[in-house]
Amino acid sequence: MSDGAVECRDVVVRYGDTTAVGGVSLTVPRGRVLALLGHNGAGKTSLLQVCEGFRRADGGCCRVLGLDPIADHDALMPRIGIMLQSGGVYPWATAGEILRLFASFSANPIAPDMLVERLGLHKVVRTRFRRLSGGEQQRLSLAIALVGRPELVFLDEPTAGMDTEARHTTWELIEELRADGVSVLLTTHLLDEAERLADDVVIMRSGVVAATGTPGELTAAAGIDLLEVRANAGLVPDASLAHLKLTETSPGEYAVAGALDTAAIAEVLAWFARAGAQVTAVNTRRRTLEDVYLSLTAGEKAGAKAGEKAKVTR
Ligand SMILES: Nc1ncnc2c1ncn2[C@@H]1O[C@H](COP(=O)(O)OP(=O)(O)OP(=O)(O)O)[C@@H](O)[C@H]1O
């Protein structure tokens, strides 16, 4: 294995007859942010739990900061920060007490007051955890993950339930972590979050890796750009354009998705001219990570078995 902050090789997680993770390999290079994407039930949290040492893999292996997450648990814990999707704290303690407790586990913590201020928790510092709103609990969980100045942070859907301001603060904090050389493995359902934060992206589908790369590689490798044309409604493309699959997406709005070069764009516009159409707008755009994600996970349904690899061509 190389010297990544996280190294997973062929990790398998089973719950009885259900294979949640069907042999996943990934590397989080040191000082980089890796976003793990995938539909509900794709296996992201299960994989994270193996990396965090909360669950033993049923197959494969995982090294975190060069250590075994279960055998070396005590040595690893002070070096990593973990933000769980929910729970993990005593519900009767106040936000301030919980944060100070976690700070006391570290030899060189960030000042809790600083994190309280930064994450807008000052108004609820004396509120018991169980009385915090969902977004406040999320912010406190993030503060807990960061207070020990970890070398590596696991963030499971860090901004789920947060308001816009807290989400932006969280993004800034993650960017600051990376600037400080901290490695981050996060899961998210927010494609704009992944596009903004991630150096590397792994897309999971039914327990296996469907695609991996930087956001730029994924959008470019998919080779899919979009040509949008506005013209008269109701034009029906003839056979000469069949290979480009021009469709009328709404009355008078036409689109072609595919690996479009200049010749293909010219071909489409020439057809509009031949059809006697009045073209009033032409727009091209590169597909976003969200477009790529949707095309990779299209047709994903609950209950699909792990190991059914998506048909991905890169
Ligand atoms: N403790 C458990 N016992 C049985 N099945 C489980 C358990 N935890 C997870 N699963 C199942 O394993 C699969 C993967 O779940 P997991 O929570 O890892 O997915 P996820 O990608 O994190 O989903 P989400 O985006 O909804 O959080 C799902 O089918 C889920 O129902």
TrEMBL record:
One cellular-component annotation, GO: plasma membrane
Record bears the keyword Nucleotide-binding: yes
Domain ABC transporter: 6-231
UniProt GO MF annotations: ATP binding; ATP hydrolysis activity
Cross-referenced InterPro entries: AAA+_ATPase, ABC_transporter-like_ATP-bd, ABC_transporter-like_CS, ABC_transporter_ATP-binding, P-loop_NTPase
CDD domains tied to this protein: ABC_DR_subfamily_A
Predominant location category: membrane
Residues of the signal peptide: none
Cellular location(s): Cell membrane
Gene3D superfamilies, alphabetized: P-loop containing nucleotide triphosphate hydrolases
Membrane topology field: Peripheral membrane protein
Pfam families: ABC_tran
Keywords annotated in UniProt: Antibiotic resistance, ATP-binding, Nucleotide-binding, Transport
Gene Ontology annotations of biological process type: response to antibiotic
Domain of life assignment: Bacteria
Name of this protein: ABC transporter ATP-binding protein
Gene source species: Paractinoplanes rishiriensis
